[in-house]
Amino acid sequence: MLNRRSFVITSLTAAALSVATLAGCGGTPADTTGNTDEPAAEAGTGAVDTGTLIVGFDSSYPPYGYVGDDGEYTGFDLELAQEVAARNDWEVQLEPIDWDAKDTMLDSGAINCIWNGFTMEGREDDYTFSEPYMLNGQVIVVRADSGIASFDDLAGKAVITQVDSAAYNVLAGEDATQADLAATFASLETIGDYNTAFMQLESGAVDAVACDLSIAAYQLAAKPDAYVQLDEFLSEEHYAVGFKKGDDASAEKVTETLRAMDEDGFVAELCEKYAEDGISYDNWCLE
Predict the structure, then answer these.
(1) How far apart are CA 124 and CA 114, in angstroms?
(2) How many angstroms from the chain centroid is the CA of residue 42?
(3) Sorting pLDDT into bands at 50, 70 and 90, what band is 21?
(4) pLDDT grade, residue 31 (50/70/90)?
(5) CA-closest candidate to residue 215, choices 62, 58, 8
(6) Which of 1, 28, 116, 264 has its CA 20 to 30 A from that of 72?
(7) For the chain, what percent of residues have pLDDT higher than 90?
(8) In the 3-class helix/strand/coil scheme, how is 75-95 assigned residue by residue?
(9) pLDDT tens digits, 59-99
(10) Distance from C-alpha of 174 to C-alpha of 244, rounded to nearest angstrom
(11) Three-class SS string for 156-182?
């Protein structure tokens, strides 16, 4: 058994930013229809109740969820979700969302889970989570020719991250040490998706991108000569599937199914499929 408690940055080969069509994955876009006490979820909204897993995801978040070259939604988390649904005889709907609207859509029932490289730390009071399935970290990526080699070199620099992301939460005050770091920046900007953030980095509009380790790995795989990831981590955390507060039945069923998928080898095979995009089975943590 591999050591799943340590982070491994997979040795990456160059891959195009627009990922080639991946066999056996993805789905066609679906039209959306429409405190310490944990209230019960509204009847009929959860996957266990309805027999339909409605997955809210950011369609510009490779390799976890994105639009493939064939125009279909694909990605590591989406394939996990589709397999979970199939094993439970659920229908599955893949719903691309504006990330800052995720809570409204979950509360309204337009989606019944958020499954998209979703960091659970700091959000435990807002959602019912599956057990964590993947280790992750927050890192800083800069241009290879920037001369930035450490966090100290970020003083006076413009840093960008995704709105309401784990990286933003860490830098904006969730972690006192990293909030002090952010205070040295010329600016901490937010943007709707990481693809655009990296376009701004490449153009020189910003000096650095704060993002998930997996996003950094994906971008470095696409353009290994363009970017450098700083060695230091802003934080380490876990990915989990987020459900409406109180939907324990769906969270438990998804956890149970993911564990079975790991035991029969499905997860390891899927990690290998996405290895060149920065996914490593060594970071799978659900046992």
Answers:
(1) 13
(2) 26
(3) very low
(4) very low
(5) 62
(6) 264
(7) 75
(8) CHHHHHHHHHHHHCCCEEEEE
(9) 999 999 999 999 999 999 999 999 999 999 999 999 999 98
(10) 23
(11) CCEEEEECCCHHHHHHHHHCHHHHHHH
Rounding to the nearest 10 degrees, give the CA dihedral for residues 153, 156, 161, 163. 150
Half-sphere exposure of 95 (CA within 13 A, CB side): 25
Tokens read off for 14: 């160059």
- 240 vs 255: CA distance, rounded Å: 9
CA dist., res. 48 & res. 65, Å (int)? 23
Contact between residue 162 and residue 221 where contact means Cβ atoms under 8 Å apart: no
Alpha-carbon span 101 to 104, nearest angstrom: 5
How far CA 245 is from CA of 103, 251, 261, in Å, comes to: 11, 10, 25
> Can you read off the two tokens belonging to residue 113?
């889970």
